[in-house]
Design goal:
Elements: E1 2-8, H1 25-35, E2 39-43, H2 55-68, E3 71-75, H3 82-94, E4 98-101, E5 109-115, E6 118-124, H4 126-131, E7 134-136, H5 139-151, H6 163-175, H7 181-189
Parallel strand pairs: 1-2, 1-3, 3-4, 4-7
Antiparallel strand pairs: 5-6
Helix pairs in contact: 1-5, 2-3, 2-6
Protein name: Nucleoside 2-deoxyribosyltransferase
Organism: Sphaerisporangium flaviroseum
Length: 195
């Protein structure tokens, strides 16, 4: 079966981002290996966009990809920003499962944490815990979790698209998608028509 994964995580925006952990071919190969025998098509938020001045369309592209993905895999190996939280919340609204790669004793997961006046064992950041279908140590395990979710038939039905997401997705579909070669190719690989 062909599956699609939205690669949520930091995007290198310039030279100052050179040290950030980001999605690469290594992470994609690990997910693919873990998801076997399923084939995985990756939806990449860092593909070039045709009109960088169309910020609503850029946001719409990310939300469209989250909406059409089989699952969102979040790279949470280190601190992430606002966009990842919005992607996770949108995925929850769309019914798209979220798999978070958060290694033990990293920013969002700890064996033990002194937190709000108490000690918490096996801590997972509350937002990550609440919005995730699975929290795993690495990208191979993320692919395995993806396969388990799909094989169990645990993909929920699409929820309604709220207006705050709908405007952006409509802008993307109407004014950007037709010239978005990487996304059109991904849809072709998935045997899906744009829209």
């Amino acid at each position: 079966m062909k599956l699609s994964v939205y690669c949520s995580g930091s995007i290198a925006k310039g030279a100052s981002d050179g040290g950030k952990l980001t999605w690469s071919d290594t992470e994609r190969m690990e997910v693919t290996k873990g998801a076997a025998p399923h084939e995985v098509v990756f939806l990449n938020p860092d593909d070039p966009i045709t009109d960088p001045n169309n910020t609503l369309g850029q946001f719409g592209r990310d939300m469209y990809q989250v909406m059409v993905a089989t699952a969102v895999i979040v790279d949470a190996r280190e601190r992430r920003g606002l966009g990842i939280g919005v992607e996770m919340a949108a995925a929850g609204n769309f019914g798209t499962p979220v798999i978070v790669v958060a290694p033990p004793n990293s920013k969002y997961r700890a064996d033990m944490l002194h937190y709000r006046g108490v000690t918490v064992d096996d801590y997972v950041h509350p937002h990550v815990a609440a919005l995730s279908a699975a929290i795993v140590d690495d990208f191979l395990a993320a692919g395995e979790a993806l396969a388990r979710i799909v094989d169990a038939g645990a993909l929920p039905a699409m929820a309604c698209v709220p207006s705050w997401l709908g405007r952006a997705i409509d802008e993307y579909r109407d004014n950007v998608l037709g010239a978005d070669i990487p996304m059109l190719e991904a849809l072709r690989q998935l045997d899906r028509t744009p829209g």
